[in-house]
Specification:
Structural class: mainly alpha
Number of strands: 2
Strand order of the largest sheet: 1-2
Shape: elongated
Distance between the termini: 70 Å
Mean pLDDT: 79
Radius of gyration: 21 Å
Strand content: 5-15%
Order of helices and strands: HHHEEHHH
Largest sheet: 2 strands, antiparallel
Length: about 130
């Protein structure tokens, strides 16, 4: 890749932390990436890295979702443009993200059930007609 950018360094840092299942703090990220302290705060505050960084305590974080993707995808997801934002991208809580995902799944299941072209549904509709 040649000269590593701060994003590449951040990606590698997160992958290493996730592989080893080690927690980290903000100062470790700043040291690994050469970011200014406000850069991490901005990325985290705007929800741009919350799909990769889960806050466990005041200054304790965990890396997630980095082992299954390549840097190109990681870079797209960090972009400040609106072209990629997952549901709940601004949620900092992993519980809130899990609840949103479950809600989305249940909504899709309800739509599939409602739109299922089964005989029983069609008979009910015909019986309700005047």
């Amino acid at each position: 890749m040649g000269k590593n950018t701060a994003q590449e360094k951040f990606f590698e840092f997160l992958r290493e932390k996730q592989k080893s299942a080690k927690k980290f703090n903000k100062s470790e990220v700043i040291k690994a990436t050469n970011w200014k302290p406000d850069t991490f705060n901005t990325y985290f505050g705007k929800g741009q890295i919350t799909q990769f960084v889960v806050k466990l305590a005041d200054d304790e974080f965990e890396a997630v979702n980095t082992l299954e993707i390549k840097f190109v995808e990681f870079k797209k997801r960090l972009s400040q443009s609106k072209h990629y934002q997952e549901l709940g991208h601004k949620c900092k809580s992993s519980l809130a993200k899990a609840l949103l995902k479950k809600s989305r799944d249940n909504m899709m299941l309800a739509l599939e059930l409602y739109n299922r072209p089964s005989l029983e549904n069609k008979l009910d509709d015909e019986m309700d007609a005047p």
